[in-house]
Specification:
Layout: E1 2-5, E2 11-15, H1 17-24, H2 28-35, H3 43-56, H4 62-69, E3 74-79, H5 85-100, E4 104-109, H6 115-127, E5 133-136, H7 140-147, E6 155-158, E7 167-168, H8 172-185, E8 191-195, H9 201-216, E9 224-226, H10 231-236, H11 238-244, E10 248-251, H12 254-266, E11 276-278, E12 295-297, H13 300-312, E13 328-330
Parallel strand pairs: 3-4, 3-5, 5-6, 6-7, 8-9, 8-10, 10-11
Antiparallel strand pairs: 1-2, 12-13
Helix pairs in contact: 1-2, 1-3, 5-13, 6-7, 8-9
């Protein structure tokens, strides 16, 4: 029920299902069916009820609805790291996908290094009556914490690089292999990898994919240089990359690739004439780097759609599509054949 307010701000009375039913000329049961999206409601009746709700300013009480129907039409999202592009983009995509499915999202944030904080955040979301929880879990330690919890509602992880029994992700290793394959097919033999932080599951999978594609093509192992996802770490890696004598670099994300491009320019090294560069993620700005960055695109919208579909499916439905989402190579201007004297 909802409080009415007088012009002077004082409480007049509350409005509830009974008021909506009276104004719409239907029973309270019919109003309840409309609120719960029951299929057996005539279209014109649904319109009358919705107009009455709007006229009266009725707002559904989700907590009360959850008690009565065991359906809150709300999903929980727990993020242990929402600052990087991938996790932040996924959170926004989950909210949009949930809304399209008629659901709301309740979010909580916790330090992935604090197991108690992660557990408390999961408990908090469950106490809100959410029907399922999406955990944006890019770190192995978050997965370890989740494995020790008994939540009682479905829990699905994203950005866990396919690890765990309920993980949904873009195929990171396949994306890395696409990048290395593109460089190899352009004629590069000496290829370096600018890697993400060691405690990130996706960084580990991209490094694995890089190594696997080199082996599959009979190419020598290249130098792996540690980065931290930031453009600064890409910029700082330039001396080591130049000292290694490579002709191409696969950067584990576009921000590091951006820093790398800037550092190479400052060093008088031309991209792609002297060194080719490929990134990962396809951030919106990648098409406007100089040169325009060839990169691997992740479909975060599809990832979110599958996550929401899995958590909102009927209990007796067939398992939702939890297969890894395939990445796509986006070809732009940062890759060319190696210099003839260094091929």
């Amino acid at each position: 029920m909802n409080d009415f307010r007088n012009a002077d701000g004082t409480t007049a009375r509350t409005v509830g299902v009974r008021d909506v039913a009276a104004l719409a000329g239907v029973s309270r049961q019919t109003v309840s069916r409309v609120l719960n999206a029951h299929p057996d409601v005539a279209a014109d009746t649904k319109v009358r009820v919705e107009r009455a709700m709007a006229e009266l300013g009725y707002r559904m009480n989700n907590a009360a609805r959850a008690l009565g129907t065991r359906r809150s039409r709300t999903l929980g999202v727990l993020a242990s790291d929402a600052l990087q592009y991938g996790p932040s983009r996924s959170i926004a995509a989950i909210e949009a996908s949930a809304r399209a499915a008629g659901y709301w999202v309740s979010a909580a944030f916790a330090d992935s290094g604090d197991a108690n904080a992660v557990a408390a955040a999961v408990d908090h979301l469950a106490a809100q009556g959410v029907e399922g929880i999406v955990v944006v879990a890019p770190h192995a330690r978050t997965l370890r914490t989740l494995e020790g919890l008994s939540v009682g509602i479905p829990v699905l992880t994203l950005h866990s690089a396919g690890q765990g029994t309920t993980g949904l992700s873009v195929d990171q290793a396949a994306g890395a292999r696409l990048a290395v394959a593109a460089l190899a097919e352009a004629g590069h033999v000496r290829i370096a990898h600018l890697a993400g932080p060691a405690d990130w599951l996706e960084a580990e999978s991209r490094a694995d994919g890089y190594a696997a594609e080199l082996i599959a093509r009979g190419l020598p192992a290249g130098p792996v240089i540690a980065g931290d996802w930031s453009a600064r770490s890409g910029h700082d890696a330039v001396p080591e990359i130049l000292a290694a004598g490579v002709t191409a670099v696969f950067a584990a994300n576009d921000q590091m690739a951006l820093g790398l491009l800037g550092g190479l320019h400052e060093a008088g090294v031309a991209v792609p004439a002297d060194i080719s560069v490929i990134g990962f993620d396809d951030v919106p700005d990648a098409a406007y780097y100089w040169p325009r960055l060839t990169t691997v695109r992740q479909d975060f919208e599809e990832l979110a759609r599958r996550a929401v579909a899995a958590l909102t499916a009927p209990v007796d439905a067939q398992p939702s599509d939890l297969e890894p989402v395939s990445p796509v190579l986006v070809v732009r201007d940062s890759v060319a054949a190696p210099p003839a004297d260094r091929a």
